[in-house]
Write a structure and sequence with these properties.
Beta-Lactamase; alpha/beta; 15 helices; Rossmann fold; elongated; 6-stranded antiparallel sheet
Length: about 500
């Protein structure tokens, strides 16, 4: 038995007449309106205007069909919960085994239906139920789409995605607010976190490392908000960033030498500028014989070295106890004999401990900071150090920053959606009360934009040689002077 849509389509093409008497009138009306005879081989003289009654009947039939599928999905969902129960949310159950059990029960339930489904309807129901039970409901296809880099759910009936740096609305929605809340709770519960009225904001991650943020009422006025920043299963490499134009080959070679030369590096930029991707690329330059400790709010770094210890912060429990923040983890990492400390994001008083680590022999540490530019990066680090509650004079803080940080790699997202490293800046020294900076590579905007709004500029060397080359030489790393030449870019 075919679906209503399939039968009408065949009737319009003159292939077959509708076999269900309930659809004869609607199908014949569509056929006549389209100018195709209801019997093969004959043409019918028709009016160019669609009969309003036909549209109403078709709309009514489509609504009834959709309602039946929703009712069927609800009953199947309830039956799956009844038969499988807690297994669906048991983290110890093998995912492949659980998927097989769900599909088996799904086939049994669909086979026992009084009104058989068409092949297309059966496939649709199976896919939607499987996504809802084993995945994340209606947004599961978006998470499988390699072109989608971010999924933004603004309430249960409005979903946006980012494709190639551009925001797009998609015709996807959750059944209701409760459906969206179940999806959010499924995500956060898998990593031992919670979200409720007493704790209405949460940071989490998917099993593949994709970053998740959720906000629920009463903070989210128009319904729960869910934001998922996807990370590729195969992380981008330095060669990929060069190919995309995010940085030049000479810049890549220079940053490779800086990481091997154990410089302390801060990756700065705005939200969505690609800081974490750049941090991943920089960490790939770390020699494999060094011990690396990573510290994050939600683990998302993808390091391929063998000797890596991953630490993740923990929120407070229901009693308000047990919280372990980034600052605690940075302090603890100093007792773990790290060669490198990598902090996914410094956004609070942990900046003080990070500076202390950089200044106490843990050279080669890397972290990210939100800021508008290299100079603003230093100002923001100062502010975050003051958040530690220490009554330190500003000059003392700046001396710590100038001594600890060697290099700032600033990244920006342009209006065309592309992401580029715009500054590779050396942090030199204190002159009076000011930290002096020196740009090594700067993005040149003078070429303008093409007809599609894409930037034609590129990252160019300023011709200046950094002062920290001597420090790199202590680590037996040399840099080809040709990297800093202004011509030949």
């Amino acid at each position: 038995m075919s679906s209503l849509g399939d039968r009408i389509a065949r009737a319009k093409a003159g292939i077959d007449a509708p076999t269900d008497s309930r659809d004869v009138d609607a199908a014949e009306s569509v056929v006549n309106t389209a100018g195709t005879a209801s019997r093969p081989g004959k043409r019918a003289a028709v009016s160019s205007e669609v009969d309003p009654s036909v549209s109403r009947r078709l709309a009514h039939a489509a609504t009834q069909h959709a309602d039946r599928l929703e009712e069927l999905k609800g009953s199947i969902h309830a039956e799956l919960l009844r038969q499988l129960g807690p297994q669906l949310y048991d983290l110890n159950v093998d995912q492949a085994d659980l998927e097989q059990r769900v599909k088996t029960v799904l086939r049994e339930v669909l086979g026992s239906q009084d009104r058989p489904l068409s092949a297309s309807d059966r496939q649709q129901v199976t896919l939607e139920i499987t996504d809802d039970i084993l995945g994340y409901g209606p947004i599961e296809p978006l998470l499988r789409d390699d072109e989608v880099s971010e999924v933004m759910v603004n309430g249960h009936d409005q979903v946006w995605v980012e494709r190639k740096g551009r925001l797009q609305w998609v015709d996807v929605k959750f059944t209701d607010e409760a459906h969206l809340r179940r999806t959010i709770e499924k995500i956060v519960s898998r990593i031992g976190r919670r979200v409720d009225e007493s704790s209405p904001m949460v940071d989490a991650r998917l099993p593949d490392g994709s970053r998740v943020n959720a906000v629920i009422p009463p903070l989210a006025i128009d319904g729960s908000s869910l934001t998922i920043r996807k990370f590729a299963a195969d992380p981008l490499t330095a060669a990929d960033l060069v190919r995309f134009g995010s940085m030049s080959q000479r810049t890549s070679d220079f940053l490779d030498a800086c990481v091997r030369g154990r410089l302390n590096i801060v990756v700065s930029g705005s939200t969505g500028a690609g800081k974490t991707t750049t941090l991943n690329v920089l960490s790939s330059f770390i020699p494999s014989d060094e011990r690396i400790v990573t510290i994050e709010d939600a683990a998302e770094l993808q390091l391929h070295q063998e000797h890596v210890v991953r630490l993740e912060s923990r929120p407070a429990n229901l009693e308000g106890k047990g919280e372990v923040d980034i600052r605690d983890l940075v302090k603890n990492s100093l007792r773990m004999r790290p060669d490198r400390i990598i902090v996914g994001e410094v956004r609070d008083a942990s900046a003080l401990d990070m500076l202390q680590a950089m200044n106490t022999g843990h050279d080669g540490s890397i972290c990210t900071v939100h800021s508008n530019g290299p100079r603003d990066t230093l100002a923001r680090i100062e502010t975050m150090v003051l958040m530690a509650g220490m009554d330190l004079p500003v000059r003392a803080i700046r001396e710590q920053v100038a001594s600890a940080v060697d290099l700032i790699v600033h990244q920006a997202r342009f209006k065309d959606g592309s992401r580029h490293i715009t500054h590779v800046t050396e942090v030199e020294r204190m002159e009076g009360d000011v930290i002096t900076l020196q740009d090594i590579f700067v993005y040149d905007h003078s070429a303008g934009f093409d007809e599609n709004g894409r930037s034609l500029g590129r990252l160019r060397a300023t011709g200046l040689r950094p002062k920290f080359l001597e420090k790199m030489a202590y680590a037996n790393v040399s840099v080809d002077p040709a990297l800093f030449a202004m011509d030949g870019m």
